[in-house]
Design goal:
mainly beta, OB fold (Dihydrolipoamide Acetyltransferase, E2P), 2 helices
């Protein structure tokens, strides 16, 4: 069986970085992914895909990603069932990302886009990674 998905899109809002009860970090975000064709009015439509990342990858997404950022996400498609506070059962379909690539320059704190060709700096003064993945993080912990 194969369950792999690759998406390229822009974040619709800043990632929501949270720590669940066990202390594990989780980042949720939504990507706006343009469709390959135009509608009858000649406009491109987009799909809005919910994504989630875990552990160190989630922390890095929370640190480096922001609304409007162009990213590629690779992972698996997952459907889960949950119950709301008022007892209604719901389903959610999302991409569980295990790798994220940054496809544009990092936006400065002011929110204006950075120019291509510049080496962008992370908040802590280190160069921002080109991509991040769970594979790299598991190698660090072994």
């Amino acid at each position: 069986m194969l369950n792999r998905i690759q998406l390229i899109g822009r974040l619709t809002r800043d990632p929501d970085l949270r720590y669940i009860a066990s202390g594990q970090p989780m980042a949720q975000f939504t990507l706006a992914v343009d469709r390959d064709f135009r509608n009858a009015a000649g406009e491109r439509e987009a799909d809005f895909v919910n994504c989630v990342t875990w552990r160190k990858l989630a922390e890095q997404v929370g640190q480096y990603c922001a609304k409007g950022r162009l990213v590629a996400v690779e992972g698996r498609l997952q459907t889960r069932t949950f119950e709301t506070q008022d007892g209604v059962r719901r389903k959610a379909t999302e991409v569980v990302g295990d790798r994220v690539w940054f496809l544009d320059g990092r936006r400065p704190e002011s929110g204006s886009p950075s120019r291509g060709g510049d080496e962008t700096e992370a908040r802590d003064g280190e160069s921002e990674p080109e991509s991040i993945s769970e594979d790299e993080e598991s190698a660090e912990t072994d």
